């Protein structure tokens, strides 16, 4: 379970919510409401006050890089720091890499192509593969299908459902309302007076 208490994100009141194992929480709000800032705060990429824990273990109790292995942020515009996708991947069990590539209809040859030659959709799906390789407990997904065609988006949604069935927690930011309706068990709507919607697991002052 992901538990968040009194999380302080600039421009928002303190946030309090829980995401049980196997559940997806959608964070919604107008452009600039702070959705991405909340995801980055949860991943400890930006400094933020408040208590965040996974399965009863507080983020302050472990080094930041260990926390980010358990709570993985997947950006809407993923960064790459090497010439090819393979050089940006953690060393995985090869069967897991093969399964993830197949699940997203990606040819293994893409791993060794120069990143600038890949399409935006290929890069986005490869970034999701990278995020899932070491099996994080919590997935923080920022517009995970924003650059994808309907067929590829459906494959991503199916992979997210599999993660939920496997007991992972997902926090989703998506502008696509039907996607939110299909995947989310609860919603958190960000505004000056942040309030929950469609779920009993979310609370905010």
Explain briefly what this protein structure is.
The protein has a single domain (2-203), classed as 3-Layer(aba) Sandwich (Rossmann fold). Helices cover 30% and strands 22% of the residues. It is built from six helices and eleven strands.
How far apart the termini lie comes to 21 Å
| CATH architecture descriptor name | 3-Layer(aba) Sandwich
Order of helices and strands: EEEHEEHEHHEHEHEEE
Overall shape:
globular
The CATH superfamily is: P-loop containing nucleotide triphosphate hydrolases
Total DSSP E strands: 11
Which class do the helix and strand fractions yield?
A: alpha/beta
Unreliably modeled segments: 197-205
CATH class: Alpha Beta
**Measured on Cα atoms, how large is the radius of gyration?**
17 Å
Biggest sheet, spatial arrangement of strands:
6-7-8-3-9-10
Q: According to CATH, what is the topology?
A: Rossmann fold
Overall mean confidence score, pLDDT = 92
* Helicity range: 25-40%
Number of helices: 6
